[in-house]
Amino acid sequence: MRSLLLFVTLATVGACGPGATTEVRAPVTNQPPVEARPARPRLTLDGALAMMPEDTEMVFELDVARLRQSVLWERIEPWLRAQGGETLAEVTRLCAFDPIASLDTVLVGAKGIGMGQLDATLFVRGFDQRASTRCLELASAAARERGETKSLVVDGDYLELREGTAASLGLTFVDEHTALLLSHGGNMVDRATLAEAAARRAGEGLTRSAPFKALLARVDTRATTWLAMNGRSPIFASMPYAVRAVRLELHTGADPARALVGALVIEVGDAANAQSLAQMFTMAIDTLKGGPYDDLTRALTVTDEGGDVVVDLRLDLAQLERLAGFLGPVIP
Predict the structure, then answer these.
(1) In sequence order, which residues have a C-beta less than 8 Å from that of residue 39 and are 6 or more positions away?
(2) Residue 239 in contact with residue 229, Cβ under 8 Å?
(3) pLDDT the model gives residue 11
């Protein structure tokens, strides 16, 4: 998660959103008028799924706008700003806007999980296209003044950052506030591949997968963060039982006593195997009871429901802070 949020901050170094100050100038007679384009429809979840490969293994979304309204935000925001560092400070100075305050949602599709060759489809929503383009132009100009060979190429909805003659980042806006980025094996894809993905519509890409669509229908996509993963992912190879799918929903709110509430569901499909797996999880949690993390273990409840293993969780603010302190050193 830390790497993802850093990537979003750095890759979109350039997004001036609502609240940015804009200098208003009189028309210039020898310049063509600004092209007036009709507003494009907001990208839907199905529209985004169509742009993901049909063999995508996992879809994950973080609703930053919803998270911003929760009791957790005042703890998370300082950490995000620290990760942004000088890059975030430069964007704020050049573009007179705050990327962290403008970020709306991050949606990710991934495949090759656990194989060392991760492919990702990333949608970043919340940054106005025209203002983002202007901000990237300003950032490139500032870099050239420092002696760097950075430039920006703009062709319609496509933006490409270059180091000399080599492309360092390419993205395309699929609506007026949503940018699409693709990576293959950790490297950004070429423009043609990006254009091919952006051109797909409902009935193509991941929307062709009936099992995955059925899985998503069992997920509350209104949650602050949610995840859906099918059983084809190699990451499940070491599980003692065959896994059909995994889904996760986490909800945040303003009540410190219910800072994070949600459920992790492992769909096994076989009732006996689900019961056995639930017992394994319960035994593992029980070993931690009575120790320094006793309060965290009591926030988890494991049950088996038919062919599913369900881990319900309810964490208050104090428990979350303890968990963050425990996980912080091990999260890359």
Answers:
(1) 176
(2) no
(3) 45
CA atoms within 13 A on the CB side of 4: 18
Phi-psi region of 251 (alpha: psi -120 to 50; beta: other; left: phi over 0): beta
What sections of the chain are H helices per DSSP? 2-11, 45-50, 64-68, 73-95, 99-102, 129-145, 191-198, 210-216, 271-286, 294-297, 317-327
Q: What is the pLDDT of residue 293?
A: 83
Could you tell me which of 127, 112, 104 has the C-alpha nearest to residue 187? 112
| Residue type at position 218 | R
The model's pLDDT over 170-190, given as tens digits with 9 standing for 90+, comes to: 999 999 999 999 999 989 999
Q: Tell me the one-letter amino acid at 207.
A: T
Sign of CA dihedral 35, 38, 39, 43: negative
**Residues β-bridged to residue 62:** 106, 225
Query: Which pLDDT score is estimated for 92?
Result: 83
- Contacts (Cβ under 8 Å, ≥6 apart) of 331: 1, 2
pLDDT for 35 equals 56
pLDDT for 129? 95
- Residues of the chain short of pLDDT 50, as ranges, are 1-32, 34
Whole-number pLDDT of residue 30: 42
Long-range contacts of 294-301 (CB under 8 A, 24+ apart): 295/319, 295/322, 296/322, 296/323
- Please state whether the predicted TM-score (pTM) of the whole model is above 0.70: yes
Three-state DSSP state, 298:
coil
φ, ψ of residue 103 to 5 degrees: the values are -60, 130
Place of tokens 């950790």: 186
